[in-house]
């Protein structure tokens, strides 16, 4: 297995554990160590894999290990670090295979480190699953252009769009900042029927992102989208604050669909390591409290039918969680269920169709 190429956790990290109480996460999770080797994979739910920046990942581990677990029944793995291969192609193949192999045994891999272009091999890892994939990127920009060339050859989004066979269903950006995005890029996102949400829009009501995560398979986080006042090298003074990014992480964890996560462009900073540890803590907390409503059992939902512009639109409301879905029908595809909110349903009742669903209805 490709996990055999992972390097064990450094001993200096394990030595720090001796000073921590026995109840902390670091003394409870299953770890890949030089002494004990690779732990048994089966029976675990989440796996942490460090990428490339060993020293940075080790500092994160020291912060994460000393946190206390919530009331969790799930088991967590720390599989150590994947170092760079002889070529970027070798590295991408290793990441792709590790992600696929872990997902096959119902383990959610969390990759930490490297550039956000690693989203591409994570996406490729879904090809063998023969499923359409929804990607959500928490990012301050669209990553559609570099050097003023729209969707350039070195953009990972370009590679995903051009991948053959094509199994990308949708891509969503959460938290873009308008001054980092050209009008041409925004037009391209519209042309591709991708969704995007401005930073201010998300901050006004973070709960509106929950349905987006509910439909997501792969979550890619550019940590540069977070405002970190203690770091001089931040991209922008604006961004998600610590509380909001942790809330988004919990929404992502609760999603029954999200099966792989990447957190990229990490900083070498003590404040950041503490925040990263808490982001992952909240994601795992969310996984613990998943509702297992995917695929949704329609017979266990309340059904509401609306007639809008001579079209019948069906909504489903879960009796278990009170969450909402909308059934979308069009000429090109089979009917699909799209996650939504109660407010979305009320908007349709008032004959006001949210922009997010206009794109779906027109594809």
Tell me what the structure shows.
By secondary structure, the protein is of the alpha/beta class. It folds into two domains: 287 residues, Ureohydrolase domain (Arginase, Chain A); 63 residues. The strands form three sheets. It has a nine-stranded parallel sheet with strand order 1-3-2-4-11-10-5-8-9. Helix 2 links the parallel strand 2 and strand 3. The protein is globular and about 70 Å long.
Which structural class do you get from the secondary structure elements? alpha/beta
CATH architecture of the largest domain: 3-Layer(aba) Sandwich
Radius of gyration: 21 Å
Strand percentage lies at 15-25%
Alpha carbon gap, first and last residue: 40 Å
Write the layout of secondary structure elements.
Elements lengths: L10 H7 L12 E2 L14 E6 L2 H12 L10 E7 L5 H17 L3 E5 L6 H6 L8 E6 L6 E2 L2 E2 L5 H7 L5 E9 L6 H9 L3 E4 H6 L5 H5 L3 E5 L19 H13 L5 E5 L5 H19 L12 E8 L2 E8 L5 E5 L7 E5 L1 H8 L5 H7 L2
Parallel strand pairs: 1-3, 2-3, 2-4, 4-11, 5-8, 5-10, 8-9, 10-11
Antiparallel strand pairs: 6-7, 12-13, 13-14, 14-15
Helix pairs in contact: 2-10, 9-10
């Amino acid at each position: 297995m490709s996990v055999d190429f992972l390097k064990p956790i450094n001993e200096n990290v394990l030595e720090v554990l001796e000073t921590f109480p026995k109840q902390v996460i670091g003394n409870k999770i299953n770890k890949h160590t030089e002494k004990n080797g690779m732990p048994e994979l089966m029976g675990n739910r989440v796996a942490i894999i460090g990428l490339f920046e060993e020293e940075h990942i080790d500092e994160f581990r020291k912060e994460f290990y000393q946190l206390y677990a919530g009331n969790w029944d799930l088991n967590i793995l720390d599989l150590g670090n994947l170092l760079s291969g002889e070529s970027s192609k070798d590295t991408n193949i290793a990441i792709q295979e590790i992600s696929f192999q872990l997902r096959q045994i119902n383990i959610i891999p969390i990759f930490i480190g490297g550039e956000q272009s690693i989203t591409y091999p994570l996406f490729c890892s879904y090809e063998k699953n023969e499923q359409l994939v929804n990607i959500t990127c928490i990012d301050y920009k669209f990553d559609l252009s570099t050097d003023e060339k729209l969707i350039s050859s070195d953009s990972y989004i370009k590679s995903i769009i051009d991948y053959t066979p094509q199994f990308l269903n949708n891509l969503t950006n959460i938290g873009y900042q308008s001054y980092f995005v050209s009008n041409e890029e925004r037009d391209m996102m519209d042309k591709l029927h991708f969704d995007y949400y401005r930073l201010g829009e998300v901050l006004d009501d973070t709960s509106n992102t929950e349905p987006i995560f509910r439909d997501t398979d792969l979550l890619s986080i550019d940590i540069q989208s977070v405002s970190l006042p203690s770091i001089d090298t931040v991209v922008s003074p604006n961004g998600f604050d610590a509380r909001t990014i942790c809330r988004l992480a919990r929404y992502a964890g609760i999603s029954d669909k999200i099966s792989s996560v990447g957190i990229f462009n990490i900083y070498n900073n003590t404040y950041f390591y503490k925040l990263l540890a808490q982001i992952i803590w909240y994601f795992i907390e969310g996984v613990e409290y998943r509702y297992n409503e995917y695929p949704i059992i329609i017979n266990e939902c309340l059904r509401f039918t609306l007639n809008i512009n001579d079209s019948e639109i069906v909504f489903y409301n879960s009796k278990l969680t009170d969450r909402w879905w909308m059934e979308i029908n069009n000429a090109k595809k089979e009917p699909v269920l799209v996650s939504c909110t109660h407010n979305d349903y009320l908007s349709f009742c008032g004959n006001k169709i949210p922009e997010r669903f206009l794109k779906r209805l027109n594809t």
